[in-house]
Write a structure and sequence with these properties.
This protein is α/β, with parallel strands linked by helices. It has eleven helices and 15 strands. It starts with a strand and ends with a strand. The structure holds adenosine-5'-diphosphate (ADP) and magnesium ion (MG). Adenosine-5'-diphosphate binds next to helix 1.
Length: 383
Amino acid sequence: MDVNKLRLVCFRNFLDTTLNFNNSLNILIGNNAQGKTNIIEAIYTLLRGGTYRTKDESTLINWQEKQGYLSGEVSKDSESFQINILFQNIEKLNPLSPKTKKIIKVNKKYRSKSWLTERFYPVIFTPEDLQIIKSSPSLRRKFLDEVIINLNPTYEHYLRDYNRILFQRNILLKTERNKHNLDRHLSEWDQKIVEAGSLITWYRIKTLQLINQKVKTIHQLMTEPKETLKLKYNSNFLTTFLEEKEEIQKVFEQKLENARDKDLTLKVTTIGPHRDDYSILSDSIDLGLYGSQGQQRTVVLALKMAELELIREKDGEYPPLLLDDVLSELDAERRLFLIKLIKEKPIQTFITSIDLQDFVPYHIVESARVFKVRGGMVEENEK
Ligand SMILES: Nc1ncnc2c1ncn2[C@@H]1O[C@H](COP(=O)(O)OP(=O)(O)O)[C@@H](O)[C@H]1O
Ligand SMILES: [Mg+2]
């Protein structure tokens, strides 16, 4: 799939800018704080119906304005989609209501955000993604969940269900004082959480296996001496490796029952996939704990490439690849690896950098479209 055209109107620091993209490489060049990341964000937002950068979408609208919009032309499976997304600041009637209203239209029809997420899944790589390795389990779960959603969009609903059930069970643990009522209600919620939760664990284990099949080879191409990379799922209730849904469910049920007193004391659900994690092991060494910065970068790059390959297997074509400020984070060999990949495979790529010189040694500028970004304006560069 390709993003052919993008117009940003009162979106971040762009007042009205139209960009026509190449279906292979697009290079965005500019100094700091000129708008490169804002363009990457706009492409992502157009395809996903929302940004990855913030929960508060009012920040997408230009500070001077009350509304902003994105429109773009996307092609997939020889179909063409005209996507329009309008963001409007609204008067907040109560503190809990959102500050921004969002209207999505595709080929002139009103559509939901999930209509977009079910069809378009760019792979994005930013310096913040290094956190996948080093930081808290929640970010690792987030990455894995995103890969699963890209491969099976309905997983997003399962995840939402699970989180809702978990939330309700926790509320019950915190607020119900009557022992008899508590026991009765808990039994009902336990059944629900076991069903929803084992599905989440099952999807995660399955997808981790898929990622493992891909990432090992990709990672070996990038390391010298060759390191063997493996992701290992650490479920908070499974002690042995299980891959059948029913078996996972049985163990979950048992462990939840065993933890009932603990949950009552702590007033929170201590068992379930919301506490799962996975280790990222290179030759059996946990990179989250012992990996060097360089090793961690290489692994994140390998993980993103694995995601790209999995999506291609599913769709028969590569999704767009968004690379924000990653070139400067990689050493010469990893840079070469990444650039070769972009060059050799039919991947529509958007890449930002401060200096066009970064690309010159690789002879890719000739066939790329180069955009100079300055103060919310874009000029196409004669090379
Ligand atoms: N809603 C907004 N309205 C106007 N300007 C904004 C808005 N949000 C961010 N900016 C500005 O956009 C500028 C460019 O940001 P960014 O795209 O992150 O730069 P970079 O080129 O370094 O990637 C920043 O100076 C920021 O202050
Ligand atoms: Mg930036």
